[in-house]
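Long-time lurker, first post. I've been practising inverse folding by hand and with some scripts of my own, and I keep getting stuck on stretches where the structure tokens seem ambiguous. Below is the full token string for one chain I'm working on. Before anyone asks, I'm not after the true native sequence, just a reasonable design that respects the backbone. If someone could post their per-position residues I'd love to compare against what I wrote down in my notebook.
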């Protein structure tokens, strides 16, 4: 079950690249490859790193939590451009996020035409 879930997460969040997962988590590519082939599974510390990276629970990674309750399903609902924005923001510290949020608020205030029709007020 873990192998199938990991492969799906790598496909959706890492552009189907095991190397991307390795680079972003610090887990050796050979280890990720072994998991993807079903030859081994992560230890508890690695499982926590994966859960944090993919923003899912460890129970989800282990197949103990249904897909519809995971944040993976929520991510699938986002547009590709929104996912790029989320991925870029994930690299920022709290101060950087605050600056970006302030910038976005000013951008929307000055350019309401940038809003989706469903987000526009009256």
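-- Answer (accepted) --
I ran through it position by position. Result:
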């Amino acid at each position: 079950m873990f192998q199938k879930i990991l492969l799906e997460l790598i496909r959706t969040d890492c552009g189907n690249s095991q190397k991307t997962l390795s680079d972003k988590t610090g887990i050796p590519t050979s280890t990720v490859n072994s998991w993807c082939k079903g030859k081994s599974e992560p230890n508890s510390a690695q499982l926590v790193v994966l859960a944090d990276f993919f923003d899912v629970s460890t129970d989800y990674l282990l197949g103990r939590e249904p897909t519809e309750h995971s944040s993976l399903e929520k991510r699938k609902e986002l547009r590709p451009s929104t996912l790029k924005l989320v991925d870029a923001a994930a690299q920022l510290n709290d101060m950087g996020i605050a600056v970006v949020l302030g910038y976005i608020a000013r951008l929307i205030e000055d350019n309401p035409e940038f809003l989706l029709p469903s987000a526009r007020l009256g």
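A couple of notes from the structure itself: The helical segments are 2-13, 18-25, 29-36, 44-54, 58-61, 71-77, 80-89, 94-110. Residues 78-119 form one domain. Happy to go over any region you disagree with.
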